[in-house]
TrEMBL record:
<feature type="domain" description="EngA-type G">
    <location>
        <begin position="198"/>
        <end position="373"/>
    </location>
</feature>
<dbReference type="InterPro" id="IPR003593">
    <property type="entry name" value="AAA+_ATPase"/>
</dbReference>
<feature type="domain" description="EngA-type G">
    <location>
        <begin position="3"/>
        <end position="167"/>
    </location>
</feature>
<dbReference type="GO" id="GO:0042254">
    <property type="term" value="P:ribosome biogenesis"/>
</dbReference>
<dbReference type="InterPro" id="IPR015946">
    <property type="entry name" value="KH_dom-like_a/b"/>
</dbReference>
<dbReference type="Pfam" id="PF01926">
    <property type="entry name" value="MMR_HSR1"/>
</dbReference>
<dbReference type="InterPro" id="IPR016484">
    <property type="entry name" value="GTPase_Der"/>
</dbReference>
<feature type="binding site">
    <location>
        <begin position="9"/>
        <end position="16"/>
    </location>
    <ligand>
        <name>GTP 1</name>
    </ligand>
</feature>
<protein>
    <recommendedName>
        <fullName>GTPase Der</fullName>
    </recommendedName>
</protein>
<dbReference type="GO" id="GO:0005525">
    <property type="term" value="F:GTP binding"/>
</dbReference>
<dbReference type="InterPro" id="IPR031166">
    <property type="entry name" value="G_ENGA"/>
</dbReference>
<keyword id="KW-0690">Ribosome biogenesis</keyword>
<comment type="similarity">
    <text>Belongs to the TRAFAC class TrmE-Era-EngA-EngB-Septin-like GTPase superfamily. EngA (Der) GTPase family.</text>
</comment>
<feature type="binding site">
    <location>
        <begin position="56"/>
        <end position="60"/>
    </location>
    <ligand>
        <name>GTP 1</name>
    </ligand>
</feature>
<dbReference type="InterPro" id="IPR006073">
    <property type="entry name" value="GTP-bd"/>
</dbReference>
<comment type="subunit">
    <text>Associates with the 50S ribosomal subunit.</text>
</comment>
<feature type="region of interest" description="Disordered">
    <location>
        <begin position="165"/>
        <end position="194"/>
    </location>
</feature>
Length: 464
């Protein structure tokens, strides 16, 4: 992106609504409840021929202690310092508040250029607030309605002076191979392209250390952490590099059992986490060493596998465990009982707070990602199926043998195979599970989903 635009303002003035409008999709959670957004998040924006990075932030609060609101404000100030221009958003219908005046004074003294945006200007009720906004000393307000998309042309015109010239854009232009218009999990897959980031979703129950893990990997306080459960609400995506590999790390909200989720904002946050899982390449399930793989952990793990994502389990707070051998046996037993059909899920013990074994975790992520991308030549698959049929042919159905003619891999991510059978409906599920497990073992594909599709047809390579 050519330049960065940050959205700031007090809570509930429409920053996240404008963020979604500029990004062209519903990425940030939006609700009437003040303070829904807590961490800053960014996305590419393309409006009126102008391309830039837009950053959504938490609502500004006039607090400087160690409370949650003060930590949210420090996160916003961090995003503001990195931006090329700030949009200070006010609610024109509510008029100018003392908090608006306070932060307008702070923004005027800062180094980042500021444009004043009067949101919610649809209808006559906004006119008094528009006139009041001149007293903030930030110039003419830009009237718009983020919810209805009105006034976007005026906003683009105001941002034009901050866009780099064509010569500057050409000098900075680098073809990194990543197309942000394509959904995260749907990048082209025939050959692994190292220029494209590996999408890693960090998921788990509330308060297991997901945000602490993200901060430890990045080496900075990128997202809020603290003893309060449910700190993260929006899924926060961060681009990152490690050992010459590009990653997109996504921190998600904690996922409790559905019966315990009653607040509307938490429901929105969990739905956002599910969206991230569906678009990820590798999902790191963070579990607490004090309650390893409880029922909800296993529910999340099964969801990840059912979505076809690669799974790595990070046992956090390992430094607090006394009997580590017993804890590891407990992990193995629970995985065998609940996920026995997915052999070899990578389990890494870490301490996110102290930064212990994070390299080991990332090595496990790369190994699992490589398996998830694996492609097996058709010739090898058909030699394999011949050996399987010689040693363990399909059972008889009504006195007749089901004939397996040929097998090929139709896609990777996850590895998916088409089995051509004369009577697909007659091949028992138990034999299909046997073939899937044998495939996984024979071609060394531990810890990832392997899918087997039954097709009716003849071997296209066989002569008539």
């Amino acid at each position: 992106m050519s330049f960065t635009v940050v959205l700031v303002g007090r809570p509930n003035v429409g920053k996240s609504t404008l963020f979604n409008r500029l990004a062209g999709k519903k990425l940030a959670l939006v609700d009437d409840t003040p303070g829904v957004t807590r961490d800053w998040r960014s996305a590419p924006a393309h409006v009126g021929g102008l391309s830039f990075t837009v950053v959504d932030t938490a609502g500004l609060e006039d607090v400087t202690d160690d409370s949650l609101e003060a930590r949210m404000r420090r996160q916003t100030e961090q995003a503001l310092a990195r931006a090329d221009v700030a949009l200070f958003i006010i609610d024109a219908r509510a008029g100018i508040t003392p908090l608006d005046r306070h932060f307008a004074n702070l923004l005027r003294r800062g180094k980042t250029p500021v444009l004043l945006v009067a949101n919610k200007t649809e209808g006559k009720a906004s006119q008094p607030g528009m006139f009041e906004s001149y007293e903030l000393g930030l110039g003419d307000p830009i009237p718009l309605s983020a919810e209805h998309g009105e006034g976007m042309a005026d906003l683009v015109e105001a941002l034009l002076p901050y866009a780099p010239s064509e010569d500057e854009e050409k000098a900075e232009e680098v073809d990194d191979g990543f197309d942000p218009s394509i959904p995260i999990g749907d990048q082209p897959e025939p050959e692994e392209d190292r220029s494209k980031p590996i999408q890693i979703a960090i998921v788990g129950r509330p308060n297991v250390g997901k945000s602490t893990l993200l901060n430890s990997l990045l080496g900075e306080e990128r997202v809020l952490t603290g003893p309060e459960a449910g700190m993260t609400r929006d899924a926060i995506a961060v681009d990152w590099e490690w050992r010459d590999r590009r990653f997109k790390l996504v921190d998600t909200a904690g996922m409790r059992r559905r019966a315990r989720v009653d607040e509307k904002v938490e429901k929105l946050a969990v739905a956002d986490s599910l969206r991230v899982i569906r678009m990820a390449n590798v999902v790191v399930l963070v579990v607490d060493a004090a309650a390893i793989l409880d029922k909800q952990d296993l529910t999340i793990a099964r969801l990840v596998i059912s979505e076809g994502r690669a799974l790595v389990i990070a046992v956090n707070k390992w430094d607090t465990v006394d009997d580590r051998a017993m804890a590891l046996r407990q992990v193995e037993d629970k995985l065998e009982a609940a996920l026995g059909y997915i052999k070899g899920v990578k389990v890494v013990t870490i301490s996110a707070l102290k930064g212990h074994k994070l390299d080991t975790l990332l090595d496990g992520v790369l190994e699992t990602y490589t398996v998830w991308n694996r492609r097996i030549p058709t010739a090898q698959l058909n030699r394999w199926i011949e050996g399987v049929l010689d040693h363990h042919p399909p059972p008889l159905v009504e006195g007749r043998r089901v004939k397996i003619r040929y097998v090929t891999q139709v896609k990777s991510r996850p590895p998916t195979f088409a089995l051509f059978v004369n009577k697909p409906l007659d091949l028992p599920e138990s034999y299909q599970r046997y073939l899937t497990g044998h495939l996984r073992e024979s071609f060394d594909m531990p810890g990832v989903p392997v899918r087997l599709l039954l097709r009716k047809g003849k071997n296209p390579y066989a002569e008539d």
